[in-house]
Design brief:
Blueprint (H helix, E strand, L loop, with lengths): L1 E10 L2 E11 L4 E5 L6 H8 L7 E6 L2 E2 L5 H4 L2 E4 L11 H11 L5 H14 L15 H14 L4 E5 L10 H13 L3 E6 L3 H5 L3 E6 L2 E7 H6 L5 H10 L1
Parallel strand pairs: 3-8, 3-9, 6-7, 7-8
Antiparallel strand pairs: 1-2, 1-4, 4-5, 9-10
Helix pairs in contact: 3-4, 3-5, 4-5
Length: 238
């Protein structure tokens, strides 16, 4: 389980994250919903040690999670909104580079892992191509494969459907749900209300750096009238 307690982040005297706390069970999805600027992406960047924070405590499976060393332990991984692929190397090398240089796998072992992941995500025939030759959906699958190769316990998705054709949203949601079923803890930051209907998750609605309402997607679907703030956000987004 991932637990975050009393996380606060300020910038230029403005609170980007204002004393937020939550926990996400292993194999579950936490979906942080809100418009741009409410702190969703900042939260993900903090969890991946890409952003500093003012105060807060972090725990993974009951043990304190040291974010300063999370890049060495690879406990948390991230699929970026713009994918952040290495454009100068091949699709396969996008996966093997970190396996060899960071995790110190042999070239043979790294290639085996990469081949297996590329096959799983339908990219086996793209192994020797470059990211610029891929579609948006293929780029996202490659970014996900690269993240999974490092075997994190927590996977963060920053706006996973924003750079894709709307028709691919179902496929993206299916991938995210499958990862949860495989035991990964998933954190999703999005403003895409369609994901509420496609994922089995806990919804955390954010506004001005705070979590202002939370609901299980199951309960929300059964009793939408109980969640005025989520409904108001959805109505404004439609």
């Amino acid at each position: 389980m991932l637990r975050v307690e009393r996380l606060t982040k300020s910038f230029n005297n403005k609170k980007i994250l204002d004393d937020i706390s939550f926990d996400i069970q292993k194999g579950h999805i936490g979906l942080f919903l809100g418009s741009s600027g409410v702190g969703k992406s900042t939260l993900l960047r903090i969890l991946n040690n890409l952003e500093t924070y003012d105060q807060g405590s972090f725990y993974l499976d009951g043990k304190k999670l040291d974010l300063e060393h999370v890049n060495q332990t690879h406990a948390v991984g991230m699929v970026f909104q713009q994918f952040n692929l290495f454009e100068h190397v091949t699709v396969k090398e996008n996966i093997t580079l970190a396996l060899i240089n960071v995790m110190h796998k042999s070239t043979k072992e790294a290639n085996t892992i990469a081949t297996k992941l590329l096959k799983h995500f339908g990219l086996e025939d793209k192994a020797d191509e470059y990211p610029s030759q891929l579609s948006g959906g293929q780029k996202q699958r490659l970014a996900l494969a690269r993240t999974i190769a490092m075997r994190p316990e927590v996977i963060c998705f920053d706006e996973p459907t924003s750079a894709l054709d709307p028709m691919l949203t179902n496929y993206v949601a299916k991938n995210i749900q499958e990862l949860a079923h495989e035991g990964f803890t998933i954190v999703v930051a999005t403003h895409d209300i369609s994901l509420l209907q496609k994922l089995s998750c806990t919804i955390y609605l954010m506004h001005q750096g705070k979590i202002i309402e939370r609901a299980s997607s199951h309960d929300y679907k059964l009793h939408p009238d109980k969640y005025d703030l989520i409904n108001k956000f959805i109505e404004g987004a439609e």
